[in-house]
Amino acid sequence: MCRYTEDHGKKLGLNGWVKNTRQGTVVGQVQGPSEKVSEMKVWLSKVGSPSSRIDRAVFSNEREISKLDFKGFFTRY
What we know:
The chain has helices at residues 2-11, 34-46, and strands at residues 15-20, 26-31, 73-75.
């Protein structure tokens, strides 16, 4: 799922990262304009990659930031 998520994050012009966990879930951080972050959240919770099965999506630690912590959107391993 990470490749598709990375591509979608880049398409939206977001910054951050995504990573598959050993438990079969995906974690990450997303930064950017709130409307684009909202679009990404909808995509993550409703669409995802073609081979993914989305049981639930949990978003936490949401806050406004004054400076981006990441440049670009990438996959961590």
